[in-house]
Amino acid sequence: MYSAPAATNAPAKTRGRVLFVCGRPDPDPAIADVAAELGYELLRVRSADEAIEHAIAPGFALILAGHTGDVAAFAEVVRRLRAAFPPTPLVAIGPPLPRGPSAEPLYEAGMLAVLDEPVSPTILKAKASFYLDAYATAAELRRMADDLAEQDRRKTEFLATLAHELRNPMAPIRSGLQLMRRTTGDPAALARVHEIMDRQLDHLVHLVDDLLDVARITRGQVELKPEWIALEDVVQAAIDSSLPLIEASRHRLDLRLPAASLKLYADATRLTQVVSNLLNNAAKYTPRGGDILLAAERDGDQAVIVVSDNGIGIPSASLESVFQMFTQVPHPTQRSHGGLGIGLSLVRSLVELHGGTITAASRGVNAGSVFTVRLPLAGKDSPAPGPAARAPSAPPAGLRLLVVDDNRDAAETLSALLGAMGHTAPVAADGHQALRMIASLRPQLVFLDIGMPGMSGYEVAQAVRADPQFDGVRLVALTGWGGEADRARGRAAGFDAHLTKPATVAAIEDALARLA
Q: How far apart are CA 417 and CA 405, in angstroms?
């Protein structure tokens, strides 16, 4: 049974510290009483020299300085205190001073107020409260300014990194295009170029998708699509995604799965994204020929996924920050491994959306890393499994299609691809032309861009759905707008499906098979 700890005589937590500089043997006791009443710890020193010895963090919220009436000597004390404690308010306490110009040297030295003895506790409390509140406000403004400066620094660093990461895959794509123009008679060389360009394009799409996911999560616009899934299927899908990177570095992958299948009611695509991201990080941050462990097991009512490696490790001071946006942990001996510093932040957000947790552990630099994901297993409140979905059939051949996009290059390449697949797919460059061509050609299915000038894809879809003669026409949005709000708006406008650019051949074939 839990027992409350025994009471201690530890001092109560205070709001801050007040420094009282006074060399006289009998200072006014009201000072200590007021400081305690306001919730501040009072530190008394006897000279400016002794005060300066305390000019280290956490600092003081107010300095009270006692004087004996010697304005010139005290002004020098004030100057020294002001130099040692620049942001801290200074208030003088002592015998009454002559009013008028004789006290001006104290204010010129940095004093803000002078209180005469005997000090009225009420006046002292009012003055101290005012300056303490002012100091707290100034400290908060400084903290906010520091935070803004740090955010601005990280934003600038992120934009520079983003430009670098986008240019990296563009270089082999451009080189590949030039090579294709010069090696038309070498099928093997062309096949290698195609493979490289396809891989680099996938990398570009992955970067953009991660950026969009982060934006959606930040705005609370990510909606999971949970279904009954087997954890081992998620793990295998993640391995299939990450295996090229693992094999390229000649790592050894140790896979450990439980004998019994673990069922979760979760979004399979998002969990695959989580595990694949962790595997990719392990592959990137482990020297060539390293060891990576991917294990899954049941722990009570939770599924546990562990990804560990014997790579460069994480300094203990950085274990929490690795999950912060745009954070890349520096390593004393390793060069940067690229990336935008958003992967682990995205992973944590996706895990938390599933009601789970993720933690990072490492024994330090060059001691490897361990990431542990805990997810709730399906419980009694999870919906019952539905019937298994049927695999989509192959799309019929010879379909009458229409491609609508104001980007001529995008429209013509998609039209050519659809033609190579055995379909007829003329191109419309805007919404008004699309409506005319739909009326004359009667396509079975239209691939329709959303963000077109003059007449948007939403308006085209609404016009098609409003005309009974087009009842049999199926509409597929093919657009760069891929958020859940965009998909909902598309459904409301009358679209039958929504594909995000750049759509894969598999996604296009699936849409044709389901809708045509």
A: 15
Note the Cα 273 to chain centre separation in Å. Answer: 15
Q: If you count them, how many residues does the chain have?
A: 516
Side-chain half-sphere of 402: how many Cα atoms within 13 Å?
Answer: 24
Tell which residue, 71, 90, 75, has the closest CA to residue 19: 90
* Cis peptide, bond prior to residue 5, ω within 30 of zero: no
The CATH number of 16-119 is: 3.40.50.2300
d(CA 449, CA 443): 16
**CATH fold for the domain made of 141-218:** Helix Hairpins (1.10.287)
Q: Is domain 401-515 classified as CATH 3.40.50.2300?
A: yes
Task: For 396-447, write each residue's pLDDT tens digit.
Answer: 889 999 999 999 988 999 999 999 999 999 999 999 999 999 999 999 999 9
Residue 488: CB partners within 8 Å, gap ≥ 6?
A: none
Instruction: Kindly report whether the peptide bond that precedes residue 58 is cis, defined as omega within 30 degrees of 0.
Output: yes
pTM reported for the whole predicted model: 0.55
CATH 3.40.50.10730 at 227-328+338-376, yes or no: no
pLDDT per residue as tens digits for the range 447-506:
999 989 999 999 999 999 999 999 999 999 998 887 778 889 999 999 999 998 888 888
Beta bridge partners of 306: 295, 372
Closest CA to 89 of 47, 121, 122, 60: 60
Consecutive H or E run containing 16: strand 16-21
Sign of torsion over alpha carbons 115, 54, 24, 103: negative
